[in-house]
Structures are given as C-alpha cells and as structure tokens.
Amino acid sequence: MMLAIMKNFLFYTSLTLSRSWTAYGFANPLSCSGTCTNAHDPSLIQRDSDGTHFRFSTGGKIAIHSAPSAQGPWTYKGAAIPACSSIQLAGNCDVWAPDVSKVGDIYYLYYSVSSFGSQNSAIGVATSATFDSGSWTDHGSTGVQSDSSKNYNAIDGNLVVVDDKHYLNFGSFWADIFQVEMSSPPNKMASGATRTQLAFNGTGSQALEGAYMFQQGSFYYLFFSSGKCCGFDASRPAPGEEYKIMVCRSESATGGFVAKNGTPCTENGGTLVLGTHDFVYGPGGQGVYDDFNLGPILYYHYVDTRIGFADGQKQFGINKIDFSSGWPVV
Ligand SMILES: *[C@@H]1O[C@H](CO)[C@@H](O)[C@H](O)[C@H]1NC(C)=O
Fold first, then answer.
1. Which atom of ligand 1 is nearest to the CA of 269?
2. What's the gap in Å between 84 CA and the centre of ligand 1?
3. In this predicted structure, what is the pLDDT of residue 63?
4. What is the mean pLDDT of the chain?
5. Which of these, 41, 49, 92, 245, has the minimum number of CB atoms within 10 Å of its CB?
C-alpha cells in the first residue's frame, strides 16, 4: 500500500515536472459558455453568410446548438432529425454521430443508425439549405451498410471532397476505419464502389472510430478516436485505454496514411494528438475546423473530471491546433 502510494507520488511528480517541456503538455480546452454539455460526437460548422457557428451532436435526435463564436455562448436550437430515419434498423429513432459539411449550396448531414455494440448499422444522410431545425430532408440510407457478415461497422460517416470527387470515411471496431467513394451529389455510395481500409489497430480491443479527415498544406490528416468511448461512470478501462485522439497523414486522401514514426495506419500506427490530461478525461469524437476567427481548431467531447463521468455530462472542448511542424500539435 505504502509502496503504491510512493509510486503514485513519484509518477505524478514526474508527470508534473515533465509537463512543462515534453510534447505531451496538452493545453487545457479554451473556455466555453452557454450549453457546453450534451456535446457527444460534435460536428462544427460556420454559416458563410454571417459566421454563426452550428454544433450538431449525438442525442436528442441530433441536437443543434448555435453560437456567435466556437466558444459560445451556445444555445439549443432543436433537433435535426426529429422523426425516425427511414432506415429500417433498430436505433432509427435516435440516430448518432452527425457529420455536417457543405457541398455546393447545400449542407449534408451524415448520421448513423445502429444499436450500441451491434453491426446492424447504416449511414444515412439528410440535407438542408439553412441548418435550422425543421429544414432537414432525410434521404435515408447512403447504401453504406453493414451486418455480421462484414468486417466493418457502418457508423461515424465523414465526408471529404477532393477535386470533384466525394468520399465517405466511416467505421469502427471490427476492422476499424474504411473509405468508400460517393456519387455526385453525395447522397449515395458510388455504384460499384469498393471499400478501402484506411486504419486498423490489430492489438487490444481493435477500437478505432470517429474518423475525420482534414486537408492542410500538401497533406490529408486522418484524425480518429482510439479506445473505450463511453460508460465511464459505470467502469473505466486501464489508464491509456480510454478514448484519445490520434492522427495519421498522407499526401493522398484515399490511402497511404502513416504515423509520425512511419508506421502505416493500417498496421497499428497512429500518433497521439490529445489524450487524458489535467481535468480532461477520454477526449474523442473529434473534428478539425478552420474557424473564421480562431484559425484551425480541434474540437471534441471529453469528460471534465470536476463535473462527472456519465455520457450525458460530456463537455464540448476546443483547442487551437498547430500544423506548422507538419504534425498537428495541441
Ligand atoms: C492500439 O491498441 C492498443 C491497445 O488497446 C493501444 O494501446 C494503442 O494506443 C492503439 N494504437 C492506436 C494507433 O490506436
């Protein structure tokens, strides 16, 4: 017991000392005001006309919040998918993991229909011209679907537009993160499209999910969440096995992603961007956004250990992110 206390003391002491000069000295999240809770799997986007920020998140049939700045004050604006999705799978009345982007003049919202831990999943899409609750038209399944015969799970869609082509990154657990080409406009998977694996961690629980691709300079950065996401109030995994944000990069949006040490992302590779630190526990469900006011920011949900570990208590986090070294640093 005494030994354990000593070890902990030494551990924390060295952690505190090393924090000031190692690469793992993560900055605390920027301040957030208004409704900063209810922020699971956030997707952040600004309206071009006036710079208003919109935040979409899991729960409440895809809750919409808006704010004059990424830091708030955030106000609840209603649900994006208030009716059940037309996808005939369990979970279609409470869809997950929104990803919102603009293609031409239209906003596309990709969502997941699934039940926790199952592979009976599909990615659906809804469109709007305004972001407002009540303005979203559900188009049902994109054709990106899975079942127990597949080595992927069709959840956590993320659209990326490269030249005139559209790709949807998706997936988690099983064989982790995949990509598929979409038609134009990107309502459906392109006919005859094949799925390419982008990331795979064959060690441990094989839990990579929540892909988000961001282009900066000559690279495409594939951000993803690795580890246990949820239910931390009921049980917490061994330290380091909780959610954390990782990245790989490539000069192509469609493959060849590697970690900073050169390990392919398809062979367990990944470089840590943000993990548990200070009062932040299990950050993930992230995205990256080139904010009109703040410049490039990493946004995510996290447990604030001073508030509580339940999924409904997860907070919206934002940090400035610096790509100047070629690798994103928080
Ligand atoms: C792969 O899984 C192991 C075991 O869970 C974990 O420690 C490691 O950080 C993971 N690597 C990546 C790139 O996610």
1. 13
2. 35
3. 96
4. 91
5. 49
pLDDT at 317: 98
Give domain limits for the chain: 49-320
* 189 in Cβ contact with 236 (< 8 Å): no
Indicate the pairing of strand 280-291 with strand 165-170.
unpaired
Dist. CA 204 → ligand 1 center (Å): 7
Question: How many residues does the structure list for the chain?
Answer: 330
Residue 12 dihedral angles phi and psi, to the nearest 5°: -70, -35
Nearest partner of 287 among 190, 136, 157, judged by Cα: 157
pTM of the predicted model as reported, rounded to 2 decimal places: 0.92
Residue nearest to atom 13 of ligand 1 (CA): 270
Distance separating alpha carbons of residues 300 and 39, to the nearest angstrom: 8
Give the residues of the chain that fall short of pLDDT 50.
1-23
Q: Are the C-beta atoms of residues 286 and 296 closer than 8 Å to each other?
A: no
Does residue 225's CB lie within 6 angstroms of at least one atom of ligand 1?
no
pLDDT at 7: 36
* pLDDT attached to residue 15: 42
**CATH homologous superfamily of 49-320:** Glycosyl hydrolase domain; family 43 (2.115.10.20)
Which residue out of 172, 200, 203 has the highest number of ligand 1 atoms within 8 Å of its CB and is therefore the one to mutate?
203
